Amino acid sequence: MKPLDPPALPGAILSFDFDGTLHHPADDPPVSLRLFRTLERLRREKGALWGINTGRSIAHVVEGLVESRFPFTPDWVVAREREIWLPHPSGRWTPLDPWNTECALELHRFLKQVGGTLDAIRREVEEHTGATWIEQPGDPAGLISRTEEEMAWIMERVVALAAGDPDLGWQRNSIWLRFGHKKYQKGSSLAEVARHFGLGAAQTFAIGDSHNDFEMLSPGVAAMFACPGNAVADIRAHVVSGGGYPCRATHSEGCVEALEHYFGTEQ
């Protein structure tokens, strides 16, 4: 599995959230074949470079590509909402530096600085909920709640307890929450991908369905942005209020609908 042949000149950046947007395991197939045909067409017509912008680790992304039998790989991947990876001819994925190295070092220093706040959040969560705190390589601070309702309660407490640390950010996707620096999220990572390929917000498209997609669904990052029909209510309201495109179709069929809205249908 290799990327599509590179365009003579990059003309657009296409950014897709993975779980719930591009990929839905209950669908058969999990990713619409129409999407792959549309990506091939936009490569020919627009020089489009496409990628996955996700909270998954890069290993988990590769797993998803293989399990869903993608016919070709993305041109780039944003993993854990902050790490940028590019495909290598050998089949490996290589980190984009200095972005990845600087991100890892800054995040390590920053989480030490806000350690007291994170400890307070952890005590609150463990005392009042059944959520599980996570500390592991690549994800030094985060948690998993038991339900969406429990996560909503946790978010209220996180906002209150983090009020004194304005740079402390978090990325939420359903019952998962990851803490980090507000500087690094899907939006800033996507802007760096576009810069790497010599493009900007005007040539960038993004689509996502959940709370960790807020930052990339912004005209300052992607002039063309959308959400699938299955997006959570907060994201759909955000897209509508910002002048983006709310799809009727769900998951990958929604991705096709949004691409056709912004780039037109096949002639």
Throw out a few tags for this protein.
Rossmann fold; 8 helices; 12 strands; 267 residues; 8-stranded mixed β-sheet; 2 domains; globular; alpha/beta; 4-stranded antiparallel β-sheet; 21% strand
Secondary-structure blueprint:
Elements: E1 12-16, H1 33-46, E2 48-53, H2 58-67, E3 76-79, E4 83-87, E5 93-95, H3 99-113, H4 115-128, E6 132-136, E7 139-144, H5 148-161, E8 168-173, E9 176-181, H6 186-196, E10 204-207, E11 224-227, H7 233-241, E12 245-246, H8 251-263
N-to-C series of helices and strands: EHEHEEEHHEEHEEHEEHEH
Round the mean pLDDT to the nearest integer and report it.
93
Question: Number of helical runs?
Answer: 8
Share in β-strands? 15-25%
Please give the CATH class of the largest domain.
Answer: Alpha Beta
**According to CATH, what is the topology of the largest domain?**
Rossmann fold
**CATH H-level superfamily of the largest domain:** HAD superfamily/HAD-like
Number of domains: 2
Gist?
With 267 residues, the protein is of the alpha/beta class.
Describe this structure in words.
This protein has helices at residues 33-46, 58-67, 99-113, 115-128, 148-161, 186-196, 233-241, 251-263, and strands at residues 12-16, 48-53, 76-79, 83-87, 93-95, 132-136, 139-144, 168-173, 176-181, 204-207, 224-227, 245-246. It has eight helices and twelve strands. The model has no long low-confidence stretch (mean pLDDT 93). The protein is globular. By secondary structure, it is α/β, with parallel strands linked by helices. 37% of the residues lie in helices and 21% in strands. The longest helix has 15 residues, at 99-113. The two termini are 28 Å apart. α1 (33-46) runs parallel beside α8 (251-263) and α4 (115-128) runs antiparallel to α5. An eight-stranded mixed sheet has the order 5-4-3-2-1-10-11-12, with helices on both faces. Strands 6-7-9-8 form a four-stranded antiparallel sheet. It has two domains: 12-81 and 185-263, Rossmann fold (3-Layer(aba) Sandwich); 101-181.
